[in-house]
Amino acid sequence: MILSGEQEIRVLIVEDEPLVAEMAWGVLEELAYEVVGIAIDGEQALEMIQTLAPDVVLMDLGLPDMDGFEVTRLIQARFPTPVVMLTAYNSPALMERAREVGAGAYLVKPGSLASMEWAITIALARFEDMKELRRLQDMLQVEVKKRQQMEYELQMYRLVSELFLDYAYAFRVEANGNLVPEWHAASILPQPAGANADDVYGYGIWENMIYPDDLPTAFAHAQILFSGRPHMSELRVIDPNGDVHWVRGYDLPVWDDQEERVIRIYGATQDITRRKQVGLLNSEVARD
Fold first, then answer.
1. Cβ-contact 27, 53 below 8 angstroms
2. DSSP string of 97-151?
3. Residues 6 or more apart in contact with residue 288 via CB below 8 angstroms
4. CB–CB of 97/116 below 8 Å?
5. Which residues pair with 265 in a beta bridge?
6. CA distance 10 to 82
7. Residue 103 CB neighbours (<10 A)
């Protein structure tokens, strides 16, 4: 008995000539396949496939209402199923046409036991290959759409950040937790003599410039980001010239479901030093 997994392979015969259909049925039974029925035209074949869900279809090329190519095309569009095309002619052009509409194998009538078994085995194997290919294509399309959406969001984020904030940046987060700079736009920090923006950025604003008393705030901010949640923080940083700045940072982590971790952080920072100074001055005036 020939099995598909744990179940016997179920075959639908589509043939309008009773004698040929009976012969095919006999061959299939001898090979221990289960014949679920015989359809005599294309419309009946489509109805029986929808109702019976056979594992494979033996499809005659010449049917009264539509040819086997069209029926096979409709099968693959509506109820994808392995198809073995049956024909009285051994023609390369017919074989190519059968392949184009989705037939998995091609058998010249009358088929022998060996050729019938080979054709069904090939059709089933090719169908599984096509299912896997479609699955991979679907996964690829999803990934492409995700990447396109991410690129769009990144462009919008950079645009908004550059228009309304003082400093925008992106870090790639490695598996060990290290942050790798990817890009930055502008800077809230003055540049020391002879330095360029890349020198200032490379100095490591979050790693080396944090005011010592604000390190706990920065650590708590980082923990929230690494958990996958966006967060806003206010802290002080020391620029390369030794001046202290108050900054407000807005950070958006990107979570990867497959790696189960944050893989990238987009951020933008605003210099709020003057605002803090004004607030402190107002407080002192109010106390006086």
1. no
2. HHHHHT-SEEEESSPPHHHHHHHHHHHHHHHHHHHHHHHHHHHHHHHHHHHHHHH
3. none
4. no
5. 171, 253
6. 11
7. 29
Q: pTM of this prediction?
A: 0.48
Question: 238-273 burial string, b = 16+ CB within 10 Å, else e?
Answer: bbbeeeebbbbbbbbbbeeeeeebbebbbbbbbbbb
Structure token digits, residue 179: 């942050």
Whether 68 and 59 have beta carbons less than 8 Å apart is answered as yes
- pLDDT > 70: percent of the chain: 78
* DSSP secondary structure, 64-80, as one string: SSS-HHHHHHHHHHHS-
Please write the tens of the pLDDT for every residue from 70-106.
Answer: 999 999 999 899 999 888 777 778 888 888 888 888 7
Structural domains present in the chain: 3-137 (3.40.50.2300), 165-287 (3.30.450.20)
In this prediction, residue 203 has a pLDDT band, given cuts at 50, 70 and 90, of very low
Sign of CA dihedral 101, 105, 107, 111: negative
Between CA 230 and CA 58 the distance in angstroms is 58
Both structure tokens of 266: 């987009």
